[in-house]
Amino acid sequence: MFLFSLWTKQQEPVAAPPNGDDTMALVTSNGKDYSTMSPEQPESPTDPLDFMLTTHPLPDDEANDEINEEPNDYSSPTHRARKKLHAFYAANNFLILIMCAILMAYVYPPLGAVYLAPQITATWIAVVFIFSTCYLGYSCFASPVLAGMSIKTEEFSKAFTRFYFNLFVQGFNFGLVSIIVYGLSRVMLSMHALPESLADGMTICASLPISVNAVQVLTKSSGGDEASAIFHAAFGNLVGIFLSPALILLYLGVMAEVDLRDVFATLILRVVLPVVVGQVLQQFVPPAKEFVKHYKKYIKVMQERCLVFIVYTVFCETFLQGSDASTRDVVLMIAFECVIMVLLMIIAWALLRMLFPTEPKLQVMGLFGCTHKTLAVGVPLIGAIYGRNPLVGLYTLPILVWHPLQLVLGSALTPRLACYVKNEEERLGLVPGCTKMNNIKVSSDNK
């Protein structure tokens, strides 16, 4: 029946006869020209479809029913629900996989703690792959190379020369955030509100560098300074490779399970050396850079899967050895982190408004840059420092909570920040069109 409707549609006249006689100008999809055919003497059908429709005509009511019938599977509630679930998974697949990995580790810890050889697969192969591909052109699930192509060189130069702003963002992210979180975690520990493992994990989370992809995306969506976001993401993560372990050991001290020489040797081999190799390949081996650029989607997926695998093995080790934290402790830690993040964002916004009153784009970028922490670099760093500690899973848990929390809060603030940037630029006369209008208004008043 569908074929009949298609055939009838294709048989519509496409041109009027030029001589005005009774001939019909019809050209069908099978290439036949019926322009010279008279209505009284139609050509006998030779096409199987023509023959079928001629010898077995459909009743008018049945034909109309078939023509008007439309597939309604795509409008069914089941299809709509499936489509929404697919969209939700596509947007949050990384976090979903992280939660599934933790649940799988809880069900059977020996698989990831023993049988999958995490000392080789997770702590070496996965970590080396993440850091080598990160700095070969893809800085931990983002693409600064491609993002930088859309930004003028003058903007990068200007972002690099903003010394006071750069110092403020990095100092706030590494210094003030870690000091505040460390002090509050010690208070909660003294009040027996949190176990020591989760309190130390919050301090470790606060000592990590700025996130990469989240800061760039949220800054761009909010109308902030994208060049500064890319600069701080790259600079903060490079500095964080050395500064974050120093801050962690400064705040928490050297534990019995931590050997300083072993820690720094591990960091050099697993983190620093892959970064150097990635940079060398990027600068001096163009085919390697083109290969990564061509297969960027697949490399990003592999990076994420490697990170999920590291988290899985880390929690397998924690569940196998046991921990000092209960479900109540985890819930309290999540609540504390929510309060701390909101507090830090309020402090950062107030300081940015006070120190950079005429730079709304920098204020927006600084809000994200001051408070965001990286998950992609943080998990391998924690594993390199505390790989032998049975509580490494609890040390990792705070950053696994901080990461989605900063995305949720940032996404909620994005529309308001975009409106704020637009209004402030108009008020300050930073928009060229707005400046012109202000000049016209002033001159008319003078007249």
H and E string: HHHHHHHHHHHHHHHHHHHH
Determine the N-to-C terminus distance: 77 Å
**What's the mean pLDDT score?**
76
Q: What is the tally of beta strands?
A: 0
Number of helices: 20
Using the CA coordinates, give the radius of gyration. Answer: 31 Å
Helix % is over 70%
How large a portion of the residues is in β-strands, by DSSP E? under 5%
Structural class: mainly alpha
User: What oligomeric state do these chains adopt?
Assistant: single chain
Largest sheet: none
Q: What's the overall geometry?
A: globular
Low-confidence stretches: 1-10, 12-56, 65-70, 141-152, 433-447
Note down, in words, how this protein is organized:
By secondary structure, this protein is mainly α. It contains 20 helices and no strands. It has helices spanning 2-10, 48-55, 60-68, 77-107, 109-115, 118-134, 144-149, 153-161, 163-190, 196-206, 213-221, 226-252, 260-284, 286-294, 296-321, 327-355, 360-371, 378-386, 392-428, 432-446. Helix 4 (77-107) crosses helix 5 (109-115), helix 5 (109-115) crosses helix 15 and helix 6 (118-134) runs antiparallel to helix 15. The chain is globular. Mean pLDDT is 76; it is low at 1-10, 12-56, 65-70, 141-152 and 433-447.
SSE blueprint:
Blueprint: H1 2-10, H2 48-55, H3 60-68, H4 77-107, H5 109-115, H6 118-134, H7 144-149, H8 153-161, H9 163-190, H10 196-206, H11 213-221, H12 226-252, H13 260-284, H14 286-294, H15 296-321, H16 327-355, H17 360-371, H18 378-386, H19 392-428, H20 432-446
Helix pairs in contact: 4-5, 4-15, 5-15, 6-13, 6-15, 9-10, 9-12, 9-17, 10-19, 11-12, 11-19, 12-17, 13-18, 15-19, 16-17, 16-19, 17-19, 18-19
